[in-house]
Amino acid sequence: MRALLVDPAAPGGLRLGEAPDPVPAPNEALVRVSATSLNSGEVKGALQGAPPGAVLGWDAAGVVERAAADGSGPAEGTLVVTLGLAGAWARLRAVDTGYLGVAPEGTDPGALSTLPVAAGSALRALHRLGPLLARRILVTGATGGVGRFAVQLARRGGAYVIASTGAPDLRGDELRALGAHEVVDERLDFAEPVHGVLDVVGGPVLVRAYDKLAEHGTLASVGRSSDERETFLQSAFEGSRGRHNRSVTSFFLAGGQGLGPDLTWLAQQVAAGHLDPQIAWRGGWEDVATAAQALVGRKLHGKAVLDVS
Q: What is the SS3 assignment for 236-255?
């Protein structure tokens, strides 16, 4: 099959080539991939340590070529969105049916391919913050892939959404259009505390965001774009009036249960026009170097989608 192969000598570290067809386990469906999306964690992290010839990729959408042998998952011909720890950057992908969501017929596969890591992480993190209705929620790194989905989902959940970005003057209108009530810079210079934080920045921003938590508030740490360390003062963890029982939580998306239904719901929201996939770049997978370099250079605000031909 055709696939994007790791090649340190190629532009962007990837080249189109041939790889063996995957052999599905009994609980895996074989999916013919139509589109895949790139995540900064793949091109900045996983790609760097991968052996030459490896087929990487987390997010993909396509059609079930062969249903799982154990009877789980959708039937042949079903449009699906998929998550895995590798194998998305190929024409065929074997996918655990527990990490596969069913999409409404006719939905753009490119839009669906943006969902698994970014929207899935945002949805799961918001679940960890508890009920959102009438709560104040802060989303840091709001112009990134996870952040843009988190702003939309928090607003749909009834939250008062505060979006933080390094460039509020440039990106404020975009974030308000997605549902943010307020757009602030990374100093987080606002007075009223928040009930929950979804943080994708880390470093000093995470420390300041934790300090903004109200009593019983939770910060969900989803990722980190900062190169700086987190340094907390001891007083940050002292309980007092208004600061009691605050917590930090984290998670590994692919380690959770019930991801398939989450992906199905997210696909339905995209199909209905309730969730904007925020595609910032789209092209054929032969142009992967252009997309990867734009992600590494932080030139994209949104998702990069590769159409698989």
A: HHCCCCCCCCCEEEECCHHH
- CATH assignment of 2-117+255-307? 3.90.180.10
A 10 A CB-CB count for 165 gives: 25
Task: Give domain limits for the chain.
Answer: 2-117+255-307, 119-250
Please give the distance of CA 44 from its chain centroid, rounded to a whole number: 15
- Which tokens go with 126? 């918001």
Using only C-alpha atoms, the chain has a radius of gyration, in whole angstroms, of: 20
Does the structural domain 119-250 have CATH classification 3.90.226.10?
A: no
Count of CB atoms situated within 10 Å of the CB of 17: 14
Using CA atoms, how far apart are residues 189 and 168, in angstroms rounded to an integer? 13
Q: Where does the chain have alpha helices with state H?
A: 40-41, 47-49, 109-112, 120-128, 145-156, 168-178, 203-211, 259-271, 288-296
How far, in Å, CA of 206 to CA of 221, rounded?
Answer: 8
pLDDT single digits (tens) 250-302 = 878 877 777 999 999 999 999 999 999 999 999 999 999 999 888 878 788 88
Tokens of 256: 């959770």
pLDDT tens per residue, range 15-40: 999 999 999 999 999 999 999 999 88
Q: Model-level pTM?
A: 0.94
What pLDDT, in 10s, does the model give residues 79-131? Answer: 999 999 999 999 999 999 999 999 999 999 999 999 999 999 999 999 999 99
Q: Is-same-fold flag (2-117+255-307; 119-250)?
A: no
